[in-house]
Amino acid sequence: MNMPSIYHSTTLLLLAFGTTADAFSTASNAPSSADVTQVGSLTVPTIGCGTIAWSTDFGRPNPELADLVSTASSNQNGVFFDTGERYGSHAKTALGMGWGETECLVARLLKENDAAEKDPTKAVVATKFTPSPWRTTVESVVEACEESRKRLGVESIDLYQIQMPDIVKPLRKFGFDKSYDKIYWDGLAECYHRGLVQNVGVSNYGPTLVTECSEHLAKRGVPLASNQIAYSLIGRHNGAQQTLDTCNELGVKVLAYYPFAMGLLTGKYTSAMPELSAEHALTSSLTKSRRSKFERKDLERYANGDGKSIPAGGVAPLLSTMERIANDRDKTVAQVALNYIICKGAIPIPGSRTAAQYDDNMGALGWRLTESEVTEMENVADNLGFAFDGAGFKRSNAKFVGYGMETWSLT
Question: Which of 87, 184, 231, 340 is catalytic?
């Protein structure tokens, strides 16, 4: 039995910028209307909200997340949440069990908010299919889509994405490494034609693979709406910039995860104390971080440098430049980091766990950096002598899949 729809994509927002590629403007030219972008048939705010760090707190109410959803639902630009069938915080999910935890949480929070608010903005929700060794047919994609659709409580998923190329091959060394990417693309097309999804996308596809996928789907009469990749001021290497350029040419919207480089470029590390600069506040914050020991070790190397692969000073020169631009514009460092990505033609998908974080992220909307500001930050970033690849087990080109790390390449 189909479950009742608890949200649907907003259709009443005005498209203020069209596509956001090359969308440079000065603060004085900031638009007064909604700052939104097209992703396939969807009109979404030009900044999304990632849910990978959301937790069900073992079934207990989570007032912070409820407050975030309420705040987001009152945003004039709309609401765009990104989740996935493999997202979840419980140990059983990490071990490959309990799929759909965060999808269920998102659905419950939206349903509760709809019941509490008089006229909430209807959310756009994207989710993901995870390539797995036991999923080898078109029907396996359709079945996974049906399960996600039921967990989200909708008749049709707004945006259904493949989470990564087909890289999970536990028996690779025995010669069992057949790729099922094209089978998965046919599965997306089948979901689209059956009306189970409104739009389809991919994640972590480089220029070659995203072009092949776009062409393959086009033959089935299905437009490729999006490609989600790691992208930030210090994450434009290893094919990321080439991928963004290719997607902009194809009309495939890039959704950028790790827009803050796991916090290295975020304003939350900036102290309200004027004598404490962003880079010094970053070091102080990392020592108090709840991240794993392995993640902190890597992030501290990026922050301070190690004199080896990362020059002394780490990311400090870039933070100084970003902080100056942020102060000149009365913005936060995090807002500058997000606006930079928008100016490059992508939609940043920062994670948020509180309404305050969400509000700060939304402060990157309604204005644009100038082309000279973008160029200045890129030049400083390029001269750092390193680029961001992730920290600990969270990498921009690899995923821990139980038996070890599997990698992909955008080049």
Answer: 87
Three-state SS for 40? coil
- For every residue of 87-110, DSSP letters joined together read ---SHHHHTT-STTHHHHHHHHHH
| Token digits of residue 15 | 């498209």
The tokens of 353 are what?
A: 């766990």
CA-to-CA separations, 170 to 145, 205, 272, 398, 404, in angstroms, rounded: 24, 21, 49, 15, 9
7 is catalytic: no
Which SS3 state, helix, strand or coil, does residue 123 take? strand
**Strand 390-391, strand 394-395: pairing:** antiparallel
The beta-strand segments (E) located in 222-360 are 224-230, 253-257, 346-348
The number of angstroms, rounded, from the C-alpha of 259 to the middle of its chain's C-alpha atoms is 8
In angstroms, the CA 101 to CA 93 distance is 8
Which pLDDT score, from 0 to 100, does residue 401 have? 61
Q: What is the pLDDT of residue 26?
A: 45
Longest dimension (CA), the chain: 62
**Predicted pLDDT of residue 46:** 97
Mean pLDDT by runs of 10 across the 411 residues of the chain is: 38 38 46 82 97 74 90 89 86 64 94 83 93 91 97 97 81 73 97 98 96 98 98 94 98 97 71 43 52 80 87 92 96 96 98 94 97 98 91 70 67 73
CA–CA distance, 337 with 322 (Å, rounded to integer)? 8
User: Which of 90, 98, 156 minimizes the C-alpha distance to 126?
Assistant: 156
The strand pairing partners of 391, in sequence order, are 394
C-beta of residue 3 within 8 angstroms of C-beta of residue 103? no
